[in-house]
Amino acid sequence: MINRLTTRNQVYSENKTMAEKHYNIDYLSETMKLLQGVKHKSYTYLESTPDGGTIVDLGCGTGQDLCHMARAFQGNNLHFIGIDHDPKMISKAKELIETDNNVEFFVGDALHLPLDDEAVGGIRMERLVQHIAKPAALFKEVYRVVKIGGRAVIVESDWKSISFYNGNLSVSDKLNNYLSTKKVNNGKAAQSLTTYLRNIGFREITLEVTPFVLSSYNDACTYLWIDKMIAEMLTLDLITQAEHDDFVAAQKYADEQGFFSCSMNIVVVSGVK
Ligand SMILES: C[S@@+](CC[C@H](N)C(=O)[O-])C[C@H]1O[C@@H](n2cnc3c(N)ncnc32)[C@H](O)[C@@H]1O
């Protein structure tokens, strides 16, 4: 089922430094806490994967979701495979493997999966599709490896939905635009998932939208890296120094006054082959 020859041939190029990417290993642990509810909701779609089947977490990062599913579905006689193209993520994930949890992690590219056709009962992808510039190729590959009757479940952050309620609308519009059209490869992925699934042939599509509200500037910086993004926009000349300072001051003022608010939608989408 897992094609070991292909896994050895995977090439991962660190063409973006961790600072340029919108996540790193520590960031994934922080968001693990915040997104717990939505993550658990996504696991439930794969709960009824038939006995003896395989569940894949694609773009598994540090592997925490796969290990949670392995623990939650213990007794269902399932095999769990995590795949990520970043060897550092996979080494971190391997630290979580327990002796009897039937979990394996592999370095591999989502566009060239090291898996046989129809080898998988369920596949999960969280915050992966936003990084894929050619989503049609990804969904073709996902469709290939899922069994008839198997399910794909996707969790995505909707970068287009970020809203601030603290003044300075012009800079927040520019930030929104920067994140959804420049910074993130496929920053509008969340709003396109049902279309991607339908176009390749998945049916019984479901969609759930959950708004996340951050009520301090510190949380917005921790979970959405707002301070880093605004600073990056300044270095790219997308905003002026005055716009930068005014935006940050408006957020801090709202915080001090107790009315800071920033929200973003997270979607969970699923489909059956
Ligand atoms: C934002 S992280 C999310 C990680 C994990 N799914 C989670 O929710 O904690 C995106 C992950 O996708 C991986 N990734 C990005 N492009 C990929 C590709 N083409 N093939 C495999 N993994 C990829 C990254 O290395 C990273 O670990």
TrEMBL record:
Gene3D superfamilies in UniProt: Vaccinia Virus protein VP39
This protein's UniProt keywords: Methyltransferase, Transferase
Family matches, as InterPro entries: Methyltransf_25, SAM-dependent_MTases_sf
Any Gene Ontology biological process: methylation
Endpoints of the signal sequence: none
Example of a GO MF term: methyltransferase activity
Every Methyltransferase domain range: 55-150
Alphabetized CDD domains for the sequence: AdoMet_MTases
One Pfam family of this chain: Methyltransf_25
Protein name in the entry: Methyltransferase domain-containing protein
